[in-house]
């Protein structure tokens, strides 16, 4: 025993050393909980073991002491006692051989829960008991055992209470509870007995004794000791007005209030006077009956609805409510059986109900009556127009309720046009030109209700085409005056001229004439006029003709023969010019003239040195052009006189002079010598200098006079020797020393010295130097200057005429005023300096303390260096350079660069004190430091120091801050260091909100995000000690496993790995009530209500019953009964009940389904079959209806009907043009009631009769008339011609006039009666013909005094009449059935206008364009013949005849000799007549076409021959 005790202490106080060896066969085979305080452990035996040590410890609890048991080797099962119930233990078994561990095995085991205590049993109904028990540690579920004489079963729960349902009523039940976990089931609690309550009464029947007294009966209930009857009013604040107990199964109640809904609840009591659940019924004392036969009559003119209904004898007033589809509510009240509702919205449907009212109560509302208001005015009314065709389109947006639209167009001349359509657009194709139309649109419903007219839109058609266009031309000024007649609708006019050469001109005017000037000459024009309105033009008018004068000759050229001074003048030819006149004026006053029909003229013997001015005029014998622009003819200049030449040794040139030469514009002096080289000079003066003469040569000098085209003959003068002894220096070179700006110039030459060197600066300063050497060094040259250096050779007689030239530039000047600006952020330097003379390029160099060199180059006066090293001192200078030198340096400027950025930043956060410490390394060039913490929202916190660390205080909770460190000196701040992020302590969760989820009885907790948190922990602590929790990384969490009806305290804590926040303030939440059971309902057909009842629910303050079908309606109550109103007819509804407390609702109870009474038939519509005058009656399916009957009664008493079980039936054999009233009746089997709907419709109008037409011969229009048709709103008359042309005429009257029918056509006319929906059928067709067309292609020829006229055939023409009207007023006519005829006996020498008319059966055609002919000239009235008998010479004479262009003179002799001659004169002499003959002489006049009339012949007798 001492050994065992020593071993136990040693195991507790010391740590066991490593097992020497282990075998896998050693294991714990069983751990079982014998009861809540014992664990039985079994294991496999281990060889060589002489002792086993069992170690048992509470899992996850390091503070609890272990249980140690030591057993000998022959025992392998042991039981631990006095353990905690429902706790998890770690069990270890070790095999020992003395003090050495041979093997070890480990396993967990849990004790079963301890026995719970059944705290209470409460019977809440005849079938339900609530049980409550203590919560047991370690239990994860509970088993409730329920026993009665007939049943024994278990229920499982996961919390410490439960509801037992479906129990037998009035029965003793034995109940006990077990706690269980994974280890098993614990011991049972003590058994408790409870008796369920007595079931409620059933089959309650209420009999009304009078208005305020009733008798209530119900079936007796087994085991009921007595009954409690409770009477409550149905109102929001339910109060018991009576509660009594009876032993019988009936009771009588009196003193009830009128017009009141009551809930009557009856409960059974058992022998212990405990109440069971109740059965509730509803009862209503006498109410006002609903209003019957409600009718709505909508007045679309007054825009109001007049309501009427049957009187209710008990009502003192009525209230009518109209609800629109859009939800707008209007109402009226009345003490009579009618009232009016105004303020209705257009295009809206309304549902009207009426409620009767008395001093104490109201009736229920009647079934709604519907009506439609008039359509709204169409919106977005737009009008567009085609200017060319005067077609107008109108469009608008569709309006609800509109069946038809009417667009009215009122013209400015008072005429009106209308367009009817069922669409949203209309087209007008017949508007007159030049008028303003005002268009408006109206909507019309099926009931012929019209909306207000839209705002009018004015639109103007295109102006009419101008007529009477005339044009007159002023040929001298090239101006055309155009005039025309006033055009309707025109505001301005544009006259357009189109030339034969394609040119175009125009002028604009607001009157009826305008002038176009500056027209092209010699052009024929066609003139049009266009009228313009505000937006449209008329198009072109018929044209007129105009013509301008010949053009002024242009492109005048002259050509001179310089040797002979002869010239010719030429110019371009222009249309319209017949001949030309040339005028030439000389500068010496002489004048020359030349006329030509060609485009050239020759001039000779012109004087030298003269200027002649020539102009040309073109003529067409009617107008002359303006004089052309003058051109000059310059004759050759005269030969220069008195030429002299002088030599200049200094310049090596010859100066030549002479006298002025007439006509010379310039001169050329030339020096020629034997080798052919001829230097010269040109001048406009009378002297010039010839340069570049060659040394020691003789020259011949000549001078020429020149003008623009010619030169004179030359004069010659011989010069003496030039006597030049010095020649030019050759091969001059230069050398510039960039170090000292010294310039050396050298040259080589064959000439002897001395030499003259001239240096000229770019600024104009000149310096000269003499030397005998062939080189020279210039002293004191300016830097950056350009020099021109000239070297001359000199002698005793002459200098050389020119020297060698050099152009060069000196060394650039040193840059001045160097300045350096440091960019601290970029650590770059901007170097600035003044411009250096001669510099082409600059280089700025910066050299640091460490030898680092940075540079930048530019052609300007500033540049920016690349990035400099931080924390350094740099020396900066600027070098100027050009293409040769780069040694010009500025003075040195020093700068200090910005400090370097701090490195190796580190931080530390003190969570408790909220202090952030920052460390870094020292930075080169830094004087002090700033550590900055920048938040995500831009907030900043900082600390300053001269050391390499500091502390930032007061950082807000839950924020991420970026920490950077800046190094600074007196001028600059370094770039920020690399950033380090820190996260402050999480914030306490704020704005915590918690609410109960009524659907699943869980608590949803919400809060605002807590900055800095990684997750959250939510705790719910119940007032009974129960708690639950949830964890989340979001900002909401749902706590489950809460009990119903309890209050819980809710807190939230923000969690992060480094630091956690404190808990939030606590909130209180209450759980949901229980679900109502045993729901029942039935339909009350008298009042249209659905009565609903149910059982009491624990925790409920009130209840809501819901009927869900095509709509959803509810009723509420504080007890277990209520009535649901406003249910839709003919619907099946699902009814359920849920309980309500102050916070939320319970789940829906199990539902039941019930059906309501059938509906009034809706959407009654009639589709008229216009072609058969039958109708389809349609309606929407009426829920609950079994069959339907539709009856149509006409305004003339005619009645037809149809019956069906469907939603459509056909009505046939309706009369045309009648108003029918359709009544639809539907029957159902629910409440044995029927309803009906009414609708009116019009049948198709009757076909028009007694159609007749007439043709107006003056206007060529066709009129159609007919008798008025029943049911017609307007008529459409269609005229269709043989050529396919169709014309329409719309009218509300009984006649139409067609103005646009084609001529010579047979038209088929139909008249159709129209209403808003249909057109008449069986319309007859009537034919008519229009007036003949004007004959086309009229052509006439004249033969003597007879006209032959032809034309093309005109359709539907009976005969034609051709008329010739002479210029002397004479008129002649021929008629024919053919397409030609002759008009004889016209007057001679007359112009006749020929026109043709076509005649039909009724009317003639319009007058066509005329055709002109000319009749033959008249014969001479008197012929006089004089005969010379000696010579047989005959002279014939006569008077001149109008229209004759020549005459044929004929002499016919008796011997057959004929003499014929044509002449244009009125006298003729014949010399070859035969002697001794008789001659008949006639004179015939001839026109252009060689037609004429012969005169009456005269007879002469020639003389006899004389025989010698």
Task: Provide a brief overview of the structure.
The chain is mainly beta and 1508 residues long. It is 1% helix and 49% strand.
Task: Spell out the key features of this protein.
1508 residues; mainly beta; 5-stranded antiparallel β-sheet; 1% helix; disordered N terminus
Q: Catalogue the unreliable spans.
A: 1-23, 718-729, 795-802
Quaternary status of these chains?
single chain
Mean pLDDT: 83
Overall spatial form:
flat
Structure description:
The longest helix has 12 residues, at 2-13. Strand 32 and strand 33 (416-421) form a beta hairpin. The chain is mostly beta strands. Helix content is 1%, strand content 49%. Strands 10, 11, 13, 14 and 15 form a five-stranded antiparallel sheet that branches. Strands 67, 68, 70, 71 and 72 form a five-stranded antiparallel sheet that branches. The protein has a four-stranded antiparallel sheet with strand order 4-3-6-7, with no helix packed on it.
Q: In terms of topology, how is this protein built?
A:
Elements: H1 2-13, E1 28-35, E2 38-43, E3 51-58, E4 67-72, E5 77-80, E6 88-97, E7 100-110, E8 118-123, E9 129-133, E10 141-147, E11 152-157, E12 161-164, E13 172-181, E14 184-188, E15 192-195, E16 205-210, E17 213-217, E18 226-233, E19 240-246, E20 250-253, E21 261-269, E22 275-284, E23 295-299, E24 304-308, E25 317-324, E26 329-334, E27 338-341, E28 349-357, E29 369-372, E30 382-386, E31 391-395, E32 404-411, E33 416-421, E34 425-428, E35 436-444, E36 457-460, E37 470-474, E38 479-483, E39 492-499, E40 504-509, E41 513-516, E42 524-532, E43 544-547, E44 557-561, E45 566-570, E46 579-586, E47 591-596, E48 600-603, E49 611-619, E50 631-634, E51 644-648, E52 653-657, E53 666-672, E54 680-683, E55 687-690, E56 700-706, E57 715-718, E58 730-737, E59 742-748, E60 755-761, E61 766-771, E62 775-778, E63 786-793, E64 804-809, E65 819-823, E66 828-832, E67 841-848, E68 853-858, E69 862-864, E70 873-881, E71 888-889, E72 893-896, E73 906-910, E74 915-919, E75 928-935, E76 940-945, E77 949-953, E78 960-968, E79 980-983, ...
Antiparallel strand pairs: 1-2, 2-5, 3-4, 3-6, 6-7, 8-9, 9-12, 10-11, 10-13, 13-14, 13-15, 16-17, 17-20, 18-19, 18-21, 21-22, 23-24, 24-27, 25-26, 25-28, 28-29, 30-31, 31-34, 32-33, 32-35, 35-36, 37-38, 38-41, 39-40, 39-42, 42-43, 44-45, 45-48, 46-47, 46-49, 49-50, 51-52, 52-55, 53-54, 53-56, ...
